Amino acid sequence: MRILHVTDTFLPNIGGAEIAIDKLAHSMTDLGAECTVLAPRPTQGEGEISVSYQVRRLRRVRSSLVWPWWMRRRIGVLDREQRPFDMVIGHHAFPCGYAVVKYAASIGRRAIIHVRGGDIYHGSRWRKKPGVWRKLRWALANAGAVVCLSAAMEELVREILGTDTPAREKARLVCIPNGVDVEGLGADASASRFAADARLRGPFILGLGRAIRRKGFHLLIDAYGRLPVSVKERWALVIAGDGRDLQELKDQAVAVAPGVIFAGLVDGADKRWLLQHCRFAATPSIEESFPNVALEAMACGKPVIGSQATGFAEMIQPGRNGLLVPVNDVPALAEALGAYVSGDLGAAAVAAAETARKFAWPEVARRYLDLVRSVAEEA
Predict the structure, then answer these.
(1) What are phi and psi of 324, to 5 degrees?
(2) Which of 133, 134, 159, 230 is deepest in the core (most CB within 10 A)?
(3) 323 DSSP β-pair partners
(4) 284, 249 Cβ separation under 8 angstroms
């Protein structure tokens, strides 16, 4: 089975979507599928990647209106190079989802859209562009299937389609979560630069992800700052990641909690070391489609404090493998941090690891391939 994944962001950029698409393509390939990823060319200074599947690149364009047309053109070229693809999957509802559904409709086939959160959230930039938003809604209604990462995201798609339109009944929504590389995250991390960092010899809390406001790290810094001085002297807070709000977070930490450690962008052994050696992870996102970082922490046997944003409630079982706090509630987050820094996390760590095993990538890929076969047979 030949499958084309179309995405507007990919490795070597590092983020939840980029890593998830790579792992999905790898796992599908391991199960016998012939996968190709069509993605923008790396920016200047970034190297190409080595993977087990084929990667084809397309030139970046500036205009959001031109993106879908350019993608459809490149999909057509790839589709004619050898035998046609059995399925084309667009990661993000726009521009990729619209492009693949439009292309498939032009040749009498069906395509799949995988919504990933930022493309459809209430704060999505596409909602501010009426023309683009109409195309996005059309694509969701006319896709062979729309893959949602969580039941909460599925409900958001239904909200977008509207309650009084045939599109709501027409759309086929399927919930398939992201997976986690349990074995890979447990690999040796002794080569990490953090292994010899004296600041990390004691217990620490880990906040891992992009330094953007919806990840809630500003809330985490405020909550950590509320902990007693005696606790902050023993426990460090590590924020690992890069993004447009990083300097703002650093400035905030200077005023609120000078002991916060900013680790920068991490990958490979560095990321594994932080996940393996933290006592627990804190992910107080304001919006979150599916918390990849929370699942990665659980794969390393670490409980997670998350917000009640979309996605977390389907993974975190309060009192068993983690804790949930209301969105934007700093006092509640500080209380949860206090409970974990003073409590025994042994049972929660075991439960977290058990949870992660249910989300291993091979199982997720099997579910995805079953969906691909089903949609292809309907075409």
Answers:
(1) -120, 140
(2) 133
(3) 305
(4) no
* CATH superfamily ID and name for 182-357: Glycogen Phosphorylase B; (3.40.50.2000)
Contact 279/340 with Cβ under 8 angstroms? yes
| Residue 253 and residue 223 in contact, taking contact as beta carbons nearer than 8 Å | no
Indicate the angle between helix axes 98-106 and 66-81, nearest 10 degrees: 50
| The two three-digit tokens of residue 142, written as one number | 């006319």
Please calculate the CA angle 73-147-83 and round it to the nearest 5 degrees.
40
Predicted confidence (pLDDT) per residue in 172-194, tens digit: 999 999 999 999 999 999 999 99
From the candidate CATH numbers 3.40.50.720, 3.40.50.12780, 3.40.50.2000, 3.30.200.20, the one assigned to the domain spanning 2-179+361-378: 3.40.50.2000
Q: What is the mean pLDDT of the chain?
A: 94
Nearest to 22 by CA among 374, 288, 371, 365: 365
Q: Please state whether 267 falls in left (phi above 0), alpha (psi between -120 and 50) or beta.
A: beta
